[in-house]
Specification:
alpha/beta; Rossmann fold; 2 domains; seven-stranded mixed β-sheet; six-stranded parallel β-sheet; 12 helices; 27% helix; binds nicotinamide-adenine-dinucleotide; binds zinc ion
């Protein structure tokens, strides 16, 4: 079929919205009609050429939600008409990692996905004779996409898809970092560095776990105000003296849990140093540039602080994304506050501009 999609043709240039061909789903694959898709930093990072593992031409986009249009042979967990959220982090339920409760990093299709192919090593997108590669296994800047069944979470039909799509990446990443990775204990003191989609998600996750105090640190007053709306009890302007200010707020000890959601290694170090002696746990969710390293004074670790990383918030997508969407439907997660702009697919580059200007938390492409 012919569809419209935003194609990365050349690094550093705007995406080109154009007609491309999309082949039918093969065995284990699903054709999804996208209805909504968030615009995220990772799309821009790849489009800019800053990511050395990027490739072109490719259809970008990874924060999608839509409706199952057709299923390939052997697909058993989804039916035509199901509402789905796309998962750049799939869940095969069979590999050694999927069977462990300790990680969400599925091993099933990593290699091919990283190179822009579906699990059989080919693409479904093309233009004449030329194949166009997939991105993050999702390629949701498109009217339709073909994805592996194991990379789709079936969610309630009651959830508006222009809200549900945010659970495809940043929001689940932040919430999951608090719930799954840190397993925040009720009554504890939490500090979240960064109040973008991921950091605000971490504030939500800390609140859902019953944290006693949630301090959010950012450079932007308007984002700190949003954090208050999501349950932050204290806010701080970030900067070189952030650790000192956090120690002052916590009787000189620091926080039980800290979260880093900026991607800046200087802030990561602050998040380690703001965790308390004895048991403070620093969870790093931000993605730093390739080759950049994080400095930690070992004494901080000897005296009981711990550091861990979190990919997609440790969320096992097919199991947990539907549960998070239920929490949204029950009124426990306020997603509306994060949808700042609605765009058409043709305006996708405007989504990048808004993101660079830090105008709003998420721009969502509406395909309806
Ligand atoms: N681990 C994962 O699976 C995963 C998934 C999605 C995104 N990410 C990463 O998470 C990070 C955050 O993503 P986002 O979409 O929320 O980004 P964002 O740019 O919207 O938010 C980052 C925030 O950090 C703030 N900030 C910058 N410098 C600061 C400082 N010195 N002190 C305090 N705050 C500061 C900015 O003002 C901004 O509000 C990025 O690095 C992104 O790549 C990771
Ligand atoms: Zn993302
Ligand atoms: Zn797996």
């Amino acid at each position: 079929m012919k569809i419209r999609a935003a194609v990365l043709e050349e690094f550093g240039a705007p995406l080109s919205v154009q007609e491309v061909a999309l082949a039918e789903p093969e065995g284990g694959e699903v054709l999804v009609r996208l209805t909504a898709c968030g615009v995220c930093h990772t799309d821009l990072y790849t489009a800019s050429g800053a990511d050395p593992s990027g490739y072109a031409p490719a259809v970008l986009g990874h924060e999608g939600a839509g409706v199952v249009e057709r299923i390939g042979e052997g697909v058993s967990s989804l039916e035509v008409g199901d509402h789905v959220v796309t998962l750049f982090s799939p869940q095969c339920r069979e590999c050694i990692h999927c069977q462990s409760p300790d990680t969400n990093i599925c091993l099933a299709i990593r290699e091919m996905q990283g190179q822009g192919y579906l699990p059989d090593g080919t693409t479904r997108f093309s233009r004449g004779e030329e194949p166009i590669r997939h991105f993050m296994g999702t390629s949701t800047f498109a009217e339709y996409t073909v994805m592996p069944e194991i990379a789709l979470a079936k969610v309630s039909k009651d959830a508006p898809l222009d809200r549900a799509c945010l659970f495809a990446c940043g929001l689940s990443t932040g919430i999951g970092a608090a719930i799954n990775t840190a397993k925040v204990k009720s009554g504890s003191i939490c500090v979240v560095f960064g109040a973008g989609m991921v950091g605000l998600g971490a504030v939500v996750g800390c609140r859902l776990r019953g944290a006693g105090r949630i301090v959010c640190v950012d450079l932007s007053e308007s984002r700190l105000a949003l954090a208050e709306g999501q349950g932050a009890t204290d806010t701080l302007r970030g900067g070189p003296d952030a650790v000192e200010q956090i120690l002052e707020l916590t009787d000189g000890f620091g926080a039980d849990y800290t979260f880093e959601a900026t991607g800046n290694v200087t802030v990561m170090r602050q998040a380690v140093e703001a965790a308390r002696m004895g048991w403070g746990l620093c969870t790093v969710a931000g993605v730093a540039g390739k080759g950049v390293t994080l400095d930690i004074v070992p004494r901080f670790l000897i005296t009981g602080r711990r550091v861990c990383g979190s990919s997609f918030g440790g969320v096992k997508g097919r199991d947990q994304v539907p549960e998070l969407v239920e929490l949204y439907l029950a009124g426990d997660i306020d997603v509306d506050a994060f949808v700042s702009h609605k765009l058409s697919l043709d305006e996708v580059n405007r989504g990048f501009e808004l993101m660079e200007a830090q105008d709003g938390i998420r721009s969502v492409i509406d395909f309806t």
